[in-house]
Amino acid sequence: xILKCFCCVYREVEEEPKISKKSSSREYPWEIxxxxxxxxxxxNFHDDNKIGEGGFGSVYWGRTSxxxxxxxxxxxxxxxxxxxxxxxxxxxxxRVRHKNxxxxxxxYAGGNERLIVYDYMPNHSLIAHLHGQxxxxxxxxxxxxxxxxxxxAEGIAYLHHEANPHIIHRDIKASNVLLxxxxxxxxxxxxxxxxxPDGVSHMTTRVKGTLGYLAPExxxxxxxxxxxxxxxxxxxxxxxxSAKKPLEKLPGGLKRDIVQWATPYVQKGxxxxxxxxxxxxxxxxxxxxxxxxxxxxxxxxxxENRPSMxxxxxWLNGGLGRTKEVSVVEDMADEDxxxxxxx
Length: 343
What we know:
GO terms for molecular function: ATP binding; protein serine/threonine kinase activity. InterPro entries: CR_Ser/Thr_kinase (IPR052059), Kinase-like_dom_sf (IPR011009), Prot_kinase_dom (IPR000719), Protein_kinase_ATP_BS (IPR017441), Ser/Thr_kinase_AS (IPR008271). This protein is α+β, with helices and mostly antiparallel strands. The protein has 2 domains: 118 residues, Phosphorylase Kinase, domain 1; 205 residues, Transferase(Phosphotransferase), domain 1 (Orthogonal Bundle), CATH 1.10.510. Helix content is 38%, strand content 17%. It has 11 helices and 15 strands. It has a 7-stranded mixed β-sheet, with helices on both faces. Strands 8-11 form a two-stranded antiparallel ribbon. A two-stranded antiparallel ribbon has the order 9-10. Helix 5 runs antiparallel to helix 10. The longest helix is centred in the middle third of the chain and has 20 residues.
């Protein structure tokens, strides 16, 4: 279905390369751009316009002739793999509409160019704030972090429970959570996504994704289900709370994942040791404890113990309503508070 849809789109663009128009399909209300329009918007893909780069290619900032700011993903030299990922992402993004999913504005497919046009996110990606160029500015206070957790969870819950058919993202990670002007989370990059037909609980497929975020049953056996996204989200939660990377290099070439690092503190009820030191104690302790325990439940190695994303959203929203003010935490959590945080 994806390839059939893509091939039809590709022919339409090739036959009418000089006309930019809206798709006539109600199901896919995107815009088909001309190459000239995108080159003009990005200043011919000038290096000064580049805002990101990865294995897929590069992302450029642009401004359309109407003044709209956009982000343009330019895929690397075409291959059957790149062609498939382009087709999958356009297909998936055309299916979904949610405030916490990155919006597709349109695309271009012609010659050796495959370009996807998105809404521009002025506050960059979550990874930039946790580990990248703006991390030291600590623009993510506790309230923003809680809102990012909830927004990301709601976007993923929509994919799992409301999209038809249901969608598994397969690459939930900090670099794929973008932040708009108000720091609202937008889950992005659907190049690895899978459609799950009704009545199918899991599928076996080639492993895609990022080390440190992969559920063990998926990494070892290629067994993918919504629960794999839940596991990745648990890792992401710990990353948001602590600003530690999912995988950490230790002396002697050893590696430790973020769950291994956090587990001793959870067992002792010392949740404050898990919080990002840059917060300087400015967080709500009940919310911190709850978020950590949700993260641990999501990242359980046993699939049966992981909650659904709907349940995660319910828990996070419940925690957000517990307190309205953030106070400075000076003393450490004790065993009684650990009991209160259990889910």
